[in-house]
């Protein structure tokens, strides 16, 4: 398995996962666009059980998902990097922002969610599994 370690731009927040990822997914929802300042966020989903964070500067924005349930968006209060999210609708896992991995080269997102709000210029890989909104919806 690839080593799953990463952190924010300034290094104030560092994390690692002792377990292999469950999946990698691109989220095109409007909240991820806002938070990332980009067209989408790329998430590596790992089990919460093996996930640990060492953080001097971790802050949390309490967001609410389309489900009406809480989405805790954790970021670095020093450099502003979005680092990971906990989604109440999907307990037991943590969604890491793939760009915060020390080595993101192995990430191969195979699922796209919230395609209904994807930017029109973003290409989706052939054979990618797409959901217009959340997979559960
Ligand atoms: Zn930072
Ligand atoms: Zn999203």
TrEMBL record:
Source organism per UniProt: Caballeronia glathei
Keyword entries, A-Z: Lyase, Metal-binding, Zinc
UniProt-listed Pfam families: GFA (PF04828)
Family: Belongs to the Gfa family.
Start and end residues of each CENP-V/GFA domain: 4-122
The keyword Iron-sulfur belongs to this UniProt entry's keyword annotation: no
The keyword Metal-binding is assigned to this record: yes
Taxonomic placement: Bacteria, Pseudomonadati, Pseudomonadota, Betaproteobacteria, Burkholderiales
Identification of the protein by name: Aldehyde-activating protein
Superkingdom of origin: Bacteria
GO molecular function: carbon-sulfur lyase activity; metal ion binding
């Amino acid at each position: 398995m690839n080593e799953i370690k990463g952190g924010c731009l300034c290094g104030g927040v560092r994390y690692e996962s002792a377990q292999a990822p469950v999946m990698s997914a691109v989220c095109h929802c409007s909240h991820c666009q806002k938070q990332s300042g980009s067209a989408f966020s790329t998430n590596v989903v790992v089990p919460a059980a093996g996930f640990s964070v060492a953080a001097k500067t971790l802050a949390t924005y309490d967001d609410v998902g389309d489900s009406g349930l809480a989405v805790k968006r954790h970021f670095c209060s020093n450099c502003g990097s979005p680092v990971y999210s906990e989604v109440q609708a999907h307990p037991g896992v943590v969604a890491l922002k793939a760009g915060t991995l020390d080595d993101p080269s192995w990430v191969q997102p195979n699922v796209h969610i919230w395609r209904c709000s994807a930017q029109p210029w973003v290409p989706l890989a052939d054979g990618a599994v797409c959901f217009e909104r959340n997979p559960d919806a």
